[in-house]
Design brief:
The protein is an all-alpha fold and 303 residues long. The chain has one domain. It has 14 helices and 2 strands, in the order H-H-H-H-H-H-H-E-H-H-H-H-H-H-H-E. It has a two-stranded antiparallel sheet with strand order 1-2. Helix 6 packs parallel to helix 9 and helix 7 crosses helix 8. The radius of gyration is 19 Å and the shape is globular. It starts with a helix and ends in a 10-residue tail after the last strand.
Length: 303
């Protein structure tokens, strides 16, 4: 029961990441991402510094895989989300985020040489169709007439980042101590974002911080989705397995839609509800069973 409770809280924390990110989108995206990671880093230091120091040679020996994990999963994934929230609704972001498992499975067919079952191909098609349905507000057959929202396009970067990160986790995460690698990746991301936030402030000006309003929001982003949600999710995966745990994340659009209507005053259209249901159904099909490996001698040809 404890694992299921932790997963429910993870869904609420990640939904809050989107809703709070939308609520403070008067701050530019690199600024939000930088302070979120800085707060998360300070929270992780007490738990991770000893294991990070003991494994310092391991981190150096595997610096390239570590860099890949860092930039895709920690540095730029949420930066893309906060960038998208400058232009599109939190509902759209949550639905587009939900297609990540389907895209990850699709990339695995090429990178990890895994072969999808027919039901998984149907799930991939459903997931992408549902995402397009939401983005186009149900006008799926008017795609050539669509005025594309920049935020929906930016979310492609977030989906790509986390899909690549998920595949890299399968290959490389076992090399590092869990708390130590979280500390190193978060700290490295803070350093990586310094030139980006500097350029952002030079171009847009230093934002005016309303500490009474924005500081609690940034504290939430750093403490809950940036730190506690990761701890809860990792522990739940240890107890239930990755496949069962990931299914809970399909409820992210439901919680986010409810929060967007009640808190942010967004309009919930039937098209978005239908699209979200299609995406969830597609993801459930895509994550059914394990993809088959291509047998030796019959490996998939590269085009």
């Amino acid at each position: 029961m404890a694992a299921y409770f932790m997963l429910i809280m993870v869904v609420f924390f990640y939904s809050g990441n989107i809703l709070v990110g939308k609520a403070i989108n008067d701050l530019p995206p690199f600024t939000i991402a930088f302070f979120r990671l800085l707060i998360a880093f300070l929270c992780i230091v007490p738990l991770g510094w000893k294991s990070a120091w003991r494994a310092r040679n391991v981190f150096w020996d595997h610096k390239l895989p570590l860099l890949l994990l860092t930039v895709t999963g920690v540095t730029f994934f949420n930066t893309f989300i906060y960038g998208a929230l400058q232009f599109t609704s939190s509902t759209n972001v949550s639905v587009l985020e939900t297609i990540i498992p389907a895209v990850t499975v699709l990339l695995s067919t090429y990178i990890l040489k895994e072969r999808l079952r027919y039901i998984q191909w149907i799930g991939v098609v459903l997931s992408i169709t549902g995402a397009l349905w939401v983005v186009m507000n149900g006008r799926l057959f008017a795609i050539t007439e669509m005025n594309w929202n920049a935020g929906d396009g930016i979310m492609i970067g977030a989906v790509a980042c986390w899909s690549i990160y998920s595949i890299a986790v399968k290959r490389y995460m076992h090399l590092f101590p869990p708390y130590g690698v979280l500390l190193v990746m978060t700290g490295a991301s803070v350093v990586i974002l310094v030139p980006f936030i500097t350029m952002e402030w030079l171009l847009l000006g230093v934002p005016s911080f309303a500490l009474g309003e924005q500081l609690p929001s940034l504290m939430y982003l750093g403490l809950f989705p940036g730190f506690i949600a990761l701890l809860f999710y990792n522990r739940a995966v240890d107890q239930l397995g990755a496949s069962k745990a990931s299914v809970f994340l399909n409820f992210l659009p439901v919680v986010t839609m409810a929060g967007a209507v009640l808190w942010l005053g967004e309009t919930l259209t039937p098209a978005k509800v239908i699209g979200a249901l299609i995406v969830i159904a597609g993801v459930l099909l895509t994550t059914q069973g394990r993809p088959k490996r291509f047998p030796e001698g019959k490996k998939k040809r590269r085009l």
